From TrEMBL:
It comes from Methanocalculus chunghsingensis. It catalyses: GMP + diphosphate = guanine + 5-phospho-alpha-D-ribose 1-diphosphate; IMP + diphosphate = hypoxanthine + 5-phospho-alpha-D-ribose 1-diphosphate. The gene is hpt. It comes from the Archaea. This is Hypoxanthine/guanine phosphoribosyltransferase. Keywords: Cytoplasm, Glycosyltransferase, Purine salvage, Transferase. The lineage of its organism: Archaea, Methanobacteriati, Methanobacteriota, Stenosarchaea group, Methanomicrobia.
Length: 183
Protein backbone atom coordinates (compact mmCIF):
# COMPACT_ATOMS: atom_id res chain seq x y z
CA UNK A 1 0.00 0.00 0.00
CA UNK A 2 0.86 3.66 -0.31
CA UNK A 3 2.91 3.06 -3.45
CA UNK A 4 0.87 5.79 -5.19
CA UNK A 5 1.45 8.19 -2.32
CA UNK A 6 5.18 7.45 -2.05
CA UNK A 7 5.61 7.89 -5.81
CA UNK A 8 3.62 11.14 -5.87
CA UNK A 9 6.37 13.06 -4.06
CA UNK A 10 8.92 12.56 -6.85
CA UNK A 11 7.82 15.64 -8.75
CA UNK A 12 6.70 18.09 -6.09
CA UNK A 13 7.58 21.70 -6.91
CA UNK A 14 9.01 23.64 -3.96
CA UNK A 15 8.17 27.32 -3.53
CA UNK A 16 9.55 29.64 -0.88
CA UNK A 17 6.97 31.17 1.43
CA UNK A 18 9.20 33.46 3.42
CA UNK A 19 11.93 31.14 4.75
CA UNK A 20 9.59 28.13 4.50
CA UNK A 21 10.14 25.52 1.74
CA UNK A 22 6.51 24.85 0.73
CA UNK A 23 5.95 21.66 -1.29
CA UNK A 24 3.05 21.61 -3.75
CA UNK A 25 1.25 18.25 -3.82
CA UNK A 26 -2.20 17.06 -5.01
CA UNK A 27 -3.27 15.94 -1.52
CA UNK A 28 -2.15 19.16 0.21
CA UNK A 29 -3.01 21.61 -2.56
CA UNK A 30 -5.37 20.00 -5.05
CA UNK A 31 -2.92 20.86 -7.82
CA UNK A 32 -1.70 19.98 -10.32
CA UNK A 33 -4.19 17.07 -10.47
CA UNK A 34 -5.75 14.76 -7.88
CA UNK A 35 -5.63 11.31 -9.47
CA UNK A 36 -8.34 8.89 -8.25
CA UNK A 37 -5.73 6.15 -7.70
CA UNK A 38 -3.81 8.43 -5.31
CA UNK A 39 -6.94 9.47 -3.45
CA UNK A 40 -8.01 5.80 -3.18
CA UNK A 41 -4.55 4.85 -1.88
CA UNK A 42 -4.78 7.52 0.80
CA UNK A 43 -8.39 6.79 1.74
CA UNK A 44 -7.84 3.03 2.09
CA UNK A 45 -4.77 3.63 4.24
CA UNK A 46 -6.59 6.14 6.46
CA UNK A 47 -9.36 3.57 6.89
CA UNK A 48 -6.77 0.95 7.89
CA UNK A 49 -4.89 3.33 10.18
CA UNK A 50 -7.77 4.79 12.18
CA UNK A 51 -9.50 3.18 15.17
CA UNK A 52 -13.07 4.22 14.37
CA UNK A 53 -14.81 2.11 17.03
CA UNK A 54 -17.75 4.16 18.40
CA UNK A 55 -16.60 7.27 16.49
CA UNK A 56 -19.67 9.32 15.63
CA UNK A 57 -18.02 12.25 13.80
CA UNK A 58 -15.00 12.88 11.64
CA UNK A 59 -13.45 16.34 12.06
CA UNK A 60 -11.36 17.94 9.30
CA UNK A 61 -10.03 21.45 8.65
CA UNK A 62 -10.66 23.71 5.67
CA UNK A 63 -9.39 23.43 3.08
CA UNK A 64 -7.26 20.40 2.42
CA UNK A 65 -8.84 18.12 4.95
CA UNK A 66 -12.14 18.31 3.08
CA UNK A 67 -11.47 15.92 0.20
CA UNK A 68 -10.03 13.17 2.40
CA UNK A 69 -12.79 13.72 4.98
CA UNK A 70 -15.41 13.32 2.26
CA UNK A 71 -13.97 10.05 0.99
CA UNK A 72 -13.51 8.62 4.51
CA UNK A 73 -17.06 9.61 5.41
CA UNK A 74 -18.43 7.87 2.32
CA UNK A 75 -16.37 4.75 3.14
CA UNK A 76 -17.43 4.60 6.79
CA UNK A 77 -20.89 6.21 6.78
CA UNK A 78 -19.62 8.47 9.60
CA UNK A 79 -20.63 12.13 9.16
CA UNK A 80 -17.98 14.85 9.15
CA UNK A 81 -17.74 18.48 10.12
CA UNK A 82 -15.29 21.01 8.70
CA UNK A 83 -13.38 23.43 10.92
CA UNK A 84 -13.92 26.50 8.74
CA UNK A 85 -11.99 29.72 8.13
CA UNK A 86 -15.30 31.57 8.26
CA UNK A 87 -17.30 32.46 11.39
CA UNK A 88 -20.89 31.16 11.59
CA UNK A 89 -21.81 32.29 15.13
CA UNK A 90 -23.74 29.05 15.66
CA UNK A 91 -24.39 28.14 19.32
CA UNK A 92 -21.22 26.61 20.81
CA UNK A 93 -18.90 27.80 18.02
CA UNK A 94 -15.26 27.75 19.17
CA UNK A 95 -12.81 30.32 17.75
CA UNK A 96 -9.24 29.09 17.26
CA UNK A 97 -6.05 30.97 16.34
CA UNK A 98 -4.08 29.05 13.67
CA UNK A 99 -0.36 29.51 13.01
CA UNK A 100 1.52 27.46 10.44
CA UNK A 101 5.04 27.76 9.04
CA UNK A 102 3.90 30.42 6.61
CA UNK A 103 0.53 31.85 7.73
CA UNK A 104 -1.60 33.01 10.63
CA UNK A 105 -5.38 32.83 10.64
CA UNK A 106 -8.53 32.00 12.54
CA UNK A 107 -10.53 28.78 12.47
CA UNK A 108 -14.08 28.15 13.68
CA UNK A 109 -15.15 24.80 15.13
CA UNK A 110 -18.86 23.94 15.03
CA UNK A 111 -21.03 20.85 15.58
CA UNK A 112 -18.73 19.12 18.08
CA UNK A 113 -20.31 18.59 21.50
CA UNK A 114 -19.98 16.92 24.90
CA UNK A 115 -20.31 13.15 24.45
CA UNK A 116 -19.02 13.09 20.85
CA UNK A 117 -16.25 10.64 20.07
CA UNK A 118 -14.37 12.08 17.12
CA UNK A 119 -11.62 11.07 14.70
CA UNK A 120 -9.51 13.95 13.37
CA UNK A 121 -7.73 13.71 10.02
CA UNK A 122 -5.76 16.27 8.05
CA UNK A 123 -3.63 16.34 4.93
CA UNK A 124 -0.36 17.31 6.61
CA UNK A 125 1.27 18.11 9.93
CA UNK A 126 4.32 20.39 9.72
CA UNK A 127 5.03 22.71 12.68
CA UNK A 128 2.06 21.25 14.56
CA UNK A 129 0.70 24.77 15.10
CA UNK A 130 -2.74 23.98 13.71
CA UNK A 131 -3.37 20.78 15.64
CA UNK A 132 -1.88 22.12 18.90
CA UNK A 133 -4.49 24.88 18.75
CA UNK A 134 -7.27 22.53 17.68
CA UNK A 135 -6.81 19.87 20.37
CA UNK A 136 -7.77 22.05 23.37
CA UNK A 137 -10.58 23.62 21.34
CA UNK A 138 -12.11 20.20 20.60
CA UNK A 139 -11.58 19.08 24.21
CA UNK A 140 -13.21 22.31 25.49
CA UNK A 141 -16.50 21.07 24.01
CA UNK A 142 -16.35 17.90 26.14
CA UNK A 143 -15.83 15.72 23.05
CA UNK A 144 -13.32 12.86 23.12
CA UNK A 145 -10.63 12.56 20.44
CA UNK A 146 -10.62 8.83 19.70
CA UNK A 147 -7.92 8.96 17.02
CA UNK A 148 -5.80 11.36 15.02
CA UNK A 149 -4.13 10.73 11.65
CA UNK A 150 -2.30 12.93 9.15
CA UNK A 151 -1.65 11.80 5.59
CA UNK A 152 1.77 13.51 5.52
CA UNK A 153 4.09 14.04 8.47
CA UNK A 154 6.66 16.73 7.77
CA UNK A 155 8.89 17.40 10.78
CA UNK A 156 7.34 14.99 13.28
CA UNK A 157 6.43 17.78 15.74
CA UNK A 158 5.56 17.02 19.35
CA UNK A 159 1.92 17.88 19.94
CA UNK A 160 1.66 16.57 23.49
CA UNK A 161 -0.09 13.31 22.52
CA UNK A 162 0.42 10.42 20.14
CA UNK A 163 -0.75 10.71 16.54
CA UNK A 164 -0.59 8.62 13.39
CA UNK A 165 0.56 9.49 9.87
CA UNK A 166 0.69 7.57 6.61
CA UNK A 167 4.03 8.85 5.34
CA UNK A 168 6.86 10.89 6.81
CA UNK A 169 8.86 13.23 4.61
CA UNK A 170 11.68 15.70 4.73
CA UNK A 171 11.60 18.83 2.57
CA UNK A 172 14.47 21.00 1.40
CA UNK A 173 14.94 23.48 -1.44
CA UNK A 174 15.66 20.56 -3.81
CA UNK A 175 12.43 18.68 -3.18
CA UNK A 176 10.57 16.19 -1.02
CA UNK A 177 12.33 13.10 0.38
CA UNK A 178 10.15 10.23 1.63
CA UNK A 179 11.53 8.94 4.93
CA UNK A 180 9.05 6.16 5.71
CA UNK A 181 5.47 5.02 5.20
CA UNK A 182 3.11 3.20 7.59
CA UNK A 183 -0.11 1.22 7.29
O1 LIG B 1 1.38 21.70 11.22
P1 LIG B 1 1.11 23.09 10.67
O2 LIG B 1 2.38 23.90 10.53
O3 LIG B 1 0.03 23.79 11.39
O4 LIG B 1 0.65 22.89 9.14
C1 LIG B 1 -0.39 22.01 8.82
C2 LIG B 1 -1.62 22.78 8.36
O5 LIG B 1 -1.27 23.65 7.25
C3 LIG B 1 -2.24 23.53 6.22
O6 LIG B 1 -3.37 24.36 6.50
P2 LIG B 1 -3.59 25.77 5.73
O7 LIG B 1 -4.74 26.42 6.39
O8 LIG B 1 -2.31 26.50 5.64
O9 LIG B 1 -3.85 25.37 4.24
P3 LIG B 1 -5.12 24.79 3.44
O10 LIG B 1 -6.19 25.82 3.46
O11 LIG B 1 -4.50 24.53 2.09
O12 LIG B 1 -5.53 23.50 4.14
C4 LIG B 1 -2.65 22.09 6.29
O13 LIG B 1 -3.92 21.86 5.68
C5 LIG B 1 -2.67 21.81 7.79
O14 LIG B 1 -3.94 22.10 8.34
Amino acid sequence: MLEQLRKSFQSCPIVKRGEYNYFIHPITDGVPLVEPALLRDVACSLFKALDLADVNKIVVTEAMGIHIGTVLSLMTDIPYTIVRKREYKLPGEVTIGQTTGYSKGTLYLNSVFDGDRIAFIDDVISTGGTIRALLPAIESTGAEIADLCFVINRGNPDIGRPYKSLVSIDVDSEGVHVLDSYF
